[in-house]
């Protein structure tokens, strides 16, 4: 039999690297296997990395990690065809080291760096190697089979951090094929633009970043969002909708991105930029109810592989990291007990359900379903809001009180009073 | 048999850009890789080791990050890897590089006598092909360039039979050991490394030497000081223009083609010197 490890981690994304790092720090013998040419080579993310969960893994990571800009402004756009209602928050406190909130990142660089920290802590990383399946003996996962010659390798615990598709999790029967409403298909582009232009157009200085989340016409009124984030000298722009909306509305993701890039509200911001990279990826958006079994005999699932994404707040990487850390802590304890059975590893499940991750997912467990079933939130209310704002701000001699009445009347006329009330209640219930 | 392979870290020239202002390679624009010809060289050494037994070492000159290609060589199957890394080596042309590498090889030979040195045909970021023969000359062993097959190793007579690529066809020669080969890509297929090699490479710590670790070094021959080469100019070759598509019936197309050819007929007349 070939060499045996304490832990094999499959996939060097944020979840896998966090888990490998934590295990290696406590002296476990860790093998981290990544199919890409290097960690992050094919990984995709809009680009907002949260400080808190990263800091718990690597204190003061911002001094060393390849980050783009600390985000000091978050904007939300309710966009119609030729207008936008915008709100947001900009705070200079977020530009100060003590108060950094989150950062924009380019994953190809960030993941590579993050994995290198796991390696420094003692994990072994091998790239360009695909794990084909878990090796199961007597109902227990005992290792993995890779696509390389002599490719079997064994460990006490196998951690599946293989991302949203988690073929390995499916093979073990932990989860089923996705329903089209459980995943969003997102396409994005990295657009190179000189730093000065970015600073001018977004009203920033060199070390300040801005994020814009765009609802409404960005997805042609379908359930989904678009985003535009500032890097040092490039922009990340992307758009996605649930697979089911895409099928229903016969949308092609590439057309949608094209539409967004040519939208009169967006185009001036990206004008003159040079397209540097084009990426497409799935996001698990099923939320609470789609989270599969996360621990078995000799195996745990973390990150996207366990469908841990809060779509409403576009939080994924942080949940990936935290779940990786919790799994690692569980494995370290299991090692002390020398018990890697499902009941021993289920401690990870408990930690997960006790943490912000499952609490947040629980809070929004009906949100996606509500918004998918009742598309009016995206395709009716957003245009209505735009019309209302236009009316409200147009100075035409009508008294403001009359204007408010008129606005309310036109909204209730379009949807009916009862319906509006129902819609509001439903939306409140979904996110309360 | 102890085979030592000289390897170089190069920018992936399939993607690299030339900085139009300075006319130098913008090395940040492309990832650093093991020179593809050198990968074949390591693979050949590993193949010969499997055939006749022995040890495969690799040696490289470069910055500390070049340990990445030593790891890559271990993935392919090398046993040991040496990196000579020192500011004194920086800015070396092919003359200074072959000098430094020959000194490293002399040092390796003290640990274990060398029977064969293998280099790639050339590095893809320079395409000169001078370092291999330069090393052979300094070590006073025969250089055998453009090798496409190592047909036979006759250990007891210290000889190898080798197939070399020529401009037209090939030749089969016999060389004494030790000798130095530079190899073409056709010599072998770089194999998909077995998992145990990958794990060994992930653990492997390269042996790093500075100038002080080498013996009898004439420092004037190192780095920029030892490099008489001057690069006059560097430019991207012009993009080829797209072809012309001829439409119409077969007859029309042929006529159009004839017209086009007649316009350019000077291209087809033999140039004679006066
Ligand atoms: C367009 C888009 C925008 C997003 N924006 C944000 C955002 O702004 N902020 C945020 O926090 N989250 C965002 N997310 C979500 C976030 O990207 C994910 O939640 C996060 O990457 C999950 O990390 P992970 O490590 O679980 O999976 P991944 O990052 O997908 O990593 C999985 C790794 O496993 C490897 N792998 C897979 N299968 C195998 C195998 N069989 N063998 C070996 N290796 C394998 C892959 O190559 C990959 O490196 C976004 C997602 C998308 C698609």
TrEMBL record, chain A:
Protein name as it appears in the record: Electron transfer flavoprotein-ubiquinone oxidoreductase
Species the sequence originates in: Pseudoneobacillus rhizosphaerae
Cofactor(s) needed by this chain: FAD
Xref: Pfam families: ETF-QO_FixC_C, FAD_oxidored
Domain of life (superkingdom): Bacteria
Domain FixC-like C-terminal per the UniProt entry, residue ranges: 368-431
EC number: 1.5.5.1
One MF annotation (Gene Ontology) recorded for this entry: electron-transferring-flavoprotein dehydrogenase activity
Flavoprotein recorded as keyword: yes
Keywords: FAD, Flavoprotein, Oxidoreductase
Family the UniProt entry places it in: Belongs to the ETF-QO/FixC family.
TrEMBL record, chain B:
Pfam families listed in its UniProt record: ETF (PF01012)
Keyword rRNA-binding: no
Domain annotation Electron transfer flavoprotein alpha/beta-subunit N-terminal: ranges: 22-218
Lineage: superkingdom: Bacteria
Keywords of the record: Oxidoreductase
InterPro entries (UniProt xref): ETF_a/b_N, ETF_b, ETF_beta_N, Rossmann-like_a/b/a_fold
GO molecular function: electron transfer activity; oxidoreductase activity
Name of the protein described by the UniProt record: Electron transfer flavoprotein small subunit
């Amino acid at each position: 039999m070939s060499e045996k490890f304490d832990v094999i981690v499959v996939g060097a994304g944020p979840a896998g690297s966090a888990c490998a790092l934590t295990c290696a720090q406590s002296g476990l013998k860790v093998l981290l296997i990544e199919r890409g040419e290097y960690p992050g080579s094919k990984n995709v993310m809009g680009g907002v990395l949260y400080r808190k969960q990263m800091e718990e893994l690597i204190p003061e990571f911002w001094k060393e990690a390849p980050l783009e800009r600390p985000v000091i402004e978050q904007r939300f756009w309710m966009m119609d065809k030729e207008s936008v209602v915008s709100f947001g928050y900009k705070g200079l406190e977020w530009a100060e080291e003590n108060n950094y909130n989150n950062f924009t990142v380019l994953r190809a660089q960030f993941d590579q760096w993050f994995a290198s920290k796991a390696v420094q802590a003692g994990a072994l990383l091998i790239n360009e190697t695909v794990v084909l399946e878990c090796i199961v003996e007597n109902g227990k996962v005992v290792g993995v089979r890779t696509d390389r010659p002599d490719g079997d390798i064994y460990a006490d615990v196998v951690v599946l951090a293989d991302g949203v598709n988690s073929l390995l999790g499916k093979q073990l029967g932990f989860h089923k094929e996705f329903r089209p409403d459980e995943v969003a298909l997102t396409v994005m582009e990295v657009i190179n633009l000189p730093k000065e232009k970015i600073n001018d157009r977004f009203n920033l200085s060199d070390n300040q970043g801005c994020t814009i989340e765009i609802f409404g016409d960005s997805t042609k009124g379908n359930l989904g969002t678009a985003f535009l984030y500032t890097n040092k000298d490039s922009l990340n722009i992307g758009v996605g909708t649930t697979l089911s909306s895409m099928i229903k509305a016969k949308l092609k993701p590439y057309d949608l991105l094209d539409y967004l890039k040519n939208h009169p509200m967006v185009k001036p911001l990206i004008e003159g930029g040079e397209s540097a990279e084009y990426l497409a990826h799935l996001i698990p958006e099923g939320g609470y109810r789609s989270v599969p079994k996360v621990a078995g005999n000799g195996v745990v699932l973390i990150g996207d592989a366990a469908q841990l994404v809060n779509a409403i707040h576009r939080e994924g990487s942080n949940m990936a990291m935290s779940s990786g850390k919790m799994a690692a802590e569980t494995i370290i304890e299991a090692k002390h007990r020398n018990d890697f059975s499902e009941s021993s590893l289920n401690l990870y499940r408990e930690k997960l359900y006790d943490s912000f991750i499952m609490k947040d997912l629980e809070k929004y467990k009906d949100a996606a379903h509500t918004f998918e079933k009742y598309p009016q939130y995206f395709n009716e209310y957003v245009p209505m809001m735009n019309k209302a704002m236009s009316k409200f701000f147009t100075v035409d001699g009508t008294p403001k009180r009359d204007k408010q009445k008129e606005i309310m009347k036109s909204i209730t006329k379009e949807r009916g009073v009862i319906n509006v009330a129902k819609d509001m209640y439903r939306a409140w219930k979904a996110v309360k | 048999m102890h085979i030592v392979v000289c390897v170089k870290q190069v920018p992936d020239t399939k993607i690299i850009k030339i900085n139009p202002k300075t006319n130098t390679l913008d090395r940040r624009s492309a990832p650093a890789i093991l020179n593809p010809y050198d990968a074949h060289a390591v693979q050949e050494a590993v193949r010969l080791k499997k055939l006749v037994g022995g040890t495969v070492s690799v040696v490289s000159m470069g910055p500390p990050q070049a340990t990445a290609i030593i790891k890559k060589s271990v993935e392919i199957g090398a046993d040991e890897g040496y990196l000579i890394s020192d500011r004194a080596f920086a800015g070396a042309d092919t003359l200074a590089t072959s000098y430094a590498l020959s000194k490293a090889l002399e040092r390796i030979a003290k640990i274990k006598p060398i029977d064969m040195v293998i280099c790639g045909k050339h590095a893809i970021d320079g395409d000169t092909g001078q370092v291999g023969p330069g090393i052979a000359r300094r070590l006073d062993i025969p250089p055998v360039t453009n090798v496409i097959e190592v047909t036979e190793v006759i250990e007891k007579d210290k000889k190898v039979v080798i197939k070399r690529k020529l401009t037209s066809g090939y030749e089969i020669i016999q060389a004494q050991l030790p000798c130095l080969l530079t190899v073409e890509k056709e010599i072998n297929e770089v194999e998909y490394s077995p998992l145990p090699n990958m794990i060994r490479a992930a653990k492997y710590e390269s042996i790093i030497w500075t100038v002080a670790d080498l013996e009898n070094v004439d420092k004037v021959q190192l780095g920029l000081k030892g490099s008489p080469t001057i690069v006059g100019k560097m430019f991207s070759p012009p993009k080829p223009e797209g072809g012309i598509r001829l439409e119409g019936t077969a007859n029309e197309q042929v006529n159009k083609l004839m017209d086009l050819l007649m316009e350019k007929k000077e291209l087809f007349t033999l140039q004679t010197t006066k």
